[in-house]
Amino acid sequence: MTDQLFLCEVEKHEIQRLFTFGTTIEQKCNFDLGRLLSNATLPKYANQFFDVFIEDFNGDLIDVPVRVNNLKDEFDQPVNLDPDSDNWILTRRFFLFDTVSGIENNRLEVIRYATSIHLKFKLDPNTVEKIYPPLIEVTYQEKQVEALDDIAERQKAVSFISQFDMDTTDFWQKSRSFFIVLMIALVLVTLVFVYTFYQGDRLDTDAMATTNYVIGKSLFLLLDNFSSMFFWYLVSVTGWLFIFFKFQERAYYMIPSLTSEAASIATYKPFDTMLITLTVTKFIALAYKIVFEQSGFNFFVIDWEQPKKYYFREFRGEAVNPWRKLYVVNELNELQTTKFITPEVILLLFLVITEGFGVKHWAILEPQLSFQEQESPYIFILTFFVITIVIFGVGSLQYAITMLFKFKFAPDFVDFVDLCAVANVSILIFNEDLRGHYIHGKSPHGSADVSAEKLRLNLLSEANGNAHVRGISPIVPDAQTFEIQLPKNMIDDYKKNYFNQITEQVRTVEQENQKNYNALQ
Question: What are the TM regions of this chain, as residue ranges (predicted)?
């Protein structure tokens, strides 16, 4: 057998791929039925019957059964549409194009042709490297010759599909067990968070507010960990499929194609459901993190500068110049957008690798790596893995390069710590759990509101080692950044002198806005 099963024009290398084990081929085209009206334009294999046999390792010929999908019995009832294969009526012969049986009174009245041919192979799960006898499925249609006078009626879609399949129940049972283990771990992590949360102090001591916060935080943690954990679960599952399918030297694993009847139920629907769920949960988790966490941090700025006397027309007295503090806060705001990787660079390199070098073709359904487009379908689970490893690989490479160059070019957060020391400003950052960071920016010279020349001399003195160190720890004198857990008495003073006042002012503004809104209504 060479190209007899192909209904469309086919290249030689595609015929060779037909006999490559594990390769799925999908070929679709429009066939001109007008070619069947003249002997000069008849296809090569028109008006021929085919008997297909497969030769086993002993040299014996085993006949390949044929299932005609729209075969009808003597009562004009379809017999091969039953899902139970025991009720099928299989044949051994089939044809591609028939312009003989439709001749009446020496005139061609009806033409019959195959619209689709489906060649199916299935691995034997009980015997290594063996398959069941293949099955050929054919669907026929017929057309009145007089209807072909309309040129639009001549073009008909035809297709040929060759696919390999296997029972994947065992693999998905193991994947399901892995899924259950991860779900148990996810619940345990959430319970540990709830337990540890109630062991510590909080900024807000209201019981109802604390309970609401715990519920919201637990749901956020559950969604965030679920989306992250099971994203890598999908990566590991699809990675296993990719490796054992693409690099198998002997027949071991076949991925069902999209045309497989059991594929959508056993393989692709669970994957699609999981991916959609991950996307939704990650979106909710990110929204919660931005609205309630990132926007809920407390930033307390400490200006160590001593008041100076100022004499202006509107003001006379001692005060501290606010511009240093405002500049530091502005830089802190910009620092929150700093990234170690650049999305634009990642997307550009991703397109170069996948489109330019043809890595996207790794996702086609054939058991080898291909860098060129073939007449094989792209499988989404393989596409997902290829996209993931390319983006992750490019991002990891960019991150590694950034880390290598950070010793020569200081990262932005290191420059920000130096800025705090130059500005004589410290920053205390903490969340509702009273945990956070402290940047000690107190100037070793005692003052930062000085002239440019004085500032230059101060920095030169530090560089020569003639000034006090910037840090506060005797163990690590140069350390200026610290991870902290705030004590309760400090929080009590903070709440008394600052937090409660800010909360009351916010509440007053909200009430005023509501009053103005009601007045407009």
Answer: 178-198, 230-247, 345-365, 377-401
User: From CA 478, how far away is CA 354, in angstroms rounded?
Assistant: 47
Whether residue 388 contacts residue 354, with contact meaning beta carbons closer than 8 Å, is answered with: no
The residue type found at 312 is F
Q: Check residue 145 and report its DSSP letter.
A: G
Residue 249 belongs to what domain range? 167-296
Backbone φ and ψ of 469, nearest 5° = -70, 155
Task: Check whether residue 129 and residue 248 sit in a common domain.
Answer: no
Cβ–Cβ under 8 Å, residues 135 and 92: no
The pTM for the full model equals 0.73
- CA-nearest of 191, 196, 197, 279 to 234 is 279
Q: Kindly state the tokens that stand for 83.
A: 């899902």
Question: What does the pLDDT look like over 327-350, one tens digit per residue?
Answer: 898 998 888 887 888 888 899 999
pLDDT level of residue 202 (50, 70, 90 thresholds): low
**Which residue blocks in 341-405 are alpha helix, DSSP H?**
343-351, 380-405
Pair of tokens at residue 429: 């950052």
What domain count does the chain have?
A: 2
Domain closes at, from 243, 264, 296: 296
* pLDDT tier, 485 (very low <50, low <70, confident <90, very high otherwise): confident
- Considering the domain architecture, whether residues 182 and 144 belong to the same structural domain is answered as no
Compute the distance between CA of residue 269 and CA of residue 51 in angstroms, rounded to an integer. 37
Longest dimension (CA), the chain: 119
Instruction: Return d(Cα 400, Cα 72) in angstroms, integer.
Output: 66
For residues 333 and 309, the answer to whether their CB atoms sit within 8 Å is no
Cα-based distances in Å from 257 to 26, 52, 122, 361: 10, 23, 12, 16
**Residue 322 falls within a domain, yes or no?**
no
Asked whether 422 and 455 are in contact (CB, 8 A), the reply is: yes
